[in-house]
Amino acid sequence: METQISSLISAREVAFQKPQLYTDIFHNLLPFIYNQNTTLQTLVIDFLKESFVDEKLDKELQLQLADELLQPLSYLISSKSHLELPRAPSPANFVKIIQLTNHIYPIIFKKCLSSPQMQDLESKWDQLQSLRDNLIQKFGTAYPLLPLNPESDASRSTRSNITLVMFITNVLSILSIAPPKDPRAARARKLKNTPEDLSIVSIPSDHKFLNMTRLEVEGRQILDVLFDALNDSRIINSPLFCVITNRLLTLFKKRPGLVSVKLFDFMIAYESMNKEDPLFESNQLKMRLIRRFNDRILKVMIGYCLNKSFVKDTKLLKRFQNKFTYYQGMFEDQRKRGLLKPDSHEIKREEKRAEFKKKKITGNESLEEQLQNNPSESPLFYYNSSPITPDLSYSSLYSLISPNNKLASFNMSELPQNILIDMIAYSLQNTTTRKLVKGLEIISDRFQNVMKFQQNYTISQDQDIQIANVPDSVKREDDKDLQDDYNPDLVYELPLPNYMTFKDQKKQLLKIISQFMELAQLDYKQPILSDVSNDDSLNGVALSSWKENTWLVFLTRLATRGLCDAQHTNEDGTVENLNDLVRDAIFTYFTADIRGRIDVVIDWLNEEWICEVARNRKEDNEVPDTPVYNAWGSKVLDNIIPFMENSDRKIFLRLLSELPSLNEQMVEKIKSICLDPIRYKFGFVSLQFLIMFRPPLKDIAINLFRRLYQETDLDDLKAECLSYLKKYCPGEYT
After folding, report:
1. Is 116 exposed, middle or buried (0-12, 13-18, 19+ CB in 10 A)?
2. The model scores a pTM over 0.70
3. For 33-76, what is each residue's pLDDT tens digit?
4. Which of 25, 407, 567, 617 has the largest count of CB atoms under 10 Å?
5. Which CATH number fits domain 61-113+120-179+197-221: 1.25.10.10, 3.40.50.300, 2.40.340.10, 1.10.150.120?
6. Residue 372 DSSP class
7. What is the pLDDT of residues 329-368, one digit of tens each?
8. Where is coiled-coil annotated (predicted)?
């Protein structure tokens, strides 16, 4: 590479030192334009710029070689993405490409006028027109930079757009009718060596492919490009405004019939205070200065037109004088107030913008009202709305904010999962449907572009793009052995996944349970997602939002339904169930705070009972046995009863009332409370509750009272039992 660079530099020096060798060197260097190495491209572009734009090449050779630049220049600006070949040129090289096109346009036009019969000249003219249109389409964009949004792109490539304005006005000078020149001034023009004024007037009526009327129409269409930029509802930056207005004024002096009406109308009607700020622009001081400078530029233009007596119509002249006087008064007020201080109109504008910035778009406003009231919150615009990504990273694919924003370099994967969930949920709740859909459309377009480019290119580790379809002539010799083994009839089958042993399954399940238990420790003050269904029936949606106990629903459904058949018989004949791991985790979580987590165990045991009954239901509709529920229900009572105190009566009664089923063994466990000298009244109240509110358990509770009466030696306990027996067995006890 270094050898090539040094050779190019030496060849360029020789070409200018020995003009007789220039043509050969020119043809040898021109193919390097198609090389993807930017250093080599830049050297060749600089060589061409020195030759043509800087006039180091004589006129005859320029006329001879100019049309050979059309295809290379068109190639350099043909890129639509940074992911495809050829890549977009650098901003500096793009400016040189515009300057080269600007220089060769009149040369080729003159060549077409003088030698219309020359071979392939018509196709060269078509190439020139295509190159011209391609460049003009890039005016007002960020090209060659990656586009972000239409509002900010023009100010990001100001230098390129300024050079394009100069090119457009030079093209307009050719594609318009030149006014007749005073023959008396011909000698003066010759003495001053004034450049030839080319225009479509010089085209003969019988020219082979140039048509004056068609080219004049094209010129007026190109002129509209500049006036559309000036008359846009958004204010444009001062450097671009200055260049456009000055070049139009220069063009007016050469082609008054083309520009005069539109230019004078613009100068009278322009009012910077009526222009809107660009979207995403929050620097109000910057916008005030842009308005100040634009007004001063226009005042200078109006004064120049008045001094040179360009305005002949008396009514129009009066309007120009009034506008000039208006600007003088406005600038005097600004001088007294201070250039940087806002006037009354600007204060109202900034207050209105601040007011709407505080409000959120409700979705009830019309689209026009949303754009007018709060454009930065518009669902149609994101700062980075480009359908093209600068690289193939996930951040480039999904980022919709400015690359200069500090959040663009922030690694979101470092945040805890619960914070990410909260951020995503809050964002979804506080955005409009239009804005969400627009963002998804942008990401979808980017993904489609990336997939399209990946079909033709492979990306290396250093992000260089290489052509995937390598010709056979440059394949490696090692590939020959691989080609011999290729069988087109062989059907490829994906390999089966590795078999997971029961031990591996337990290990993975424990990881899942651990993650859910971490979620259980989080504090959810409000649902993360809004409800999607209000159906409270049995067939309704079990989880419509992520709430405080949502993790419990997942685990209970996993234990009772998802893993109901996950069993394994060990070598010693014992049977292990994966769902018991989930049940044990829920039970352990409950025992850590039996008073504060009574809801957890009630929901879990109800789910256990319902699923077991549904799974084991018989044809006669009798309630089947529920051994799993009975075992874990008994285990819960065994662990909760020793810790119940008299103050926990409401908690325990709630458990007895909301458990779906209680058998005799479970009720028998209350006996230990009744035998406690301190808690016996608590136990008796629990048995009375079962008699009154759970009739199927009445006989079991009364029998427990009988046994307590017969077995106890404590007088207080015996008297308490007798009082309940007299109440519920009046014929048996008196």
Report:
1. middle
2. no
3. 888 788 888 999 999 999 999 888 888 899 999 999 999 999 98
4. 25
5. 1.25.10.10
6. H
7. 888 887 887 767 777 666 766 666 566 555 544 444 444 4
8. none
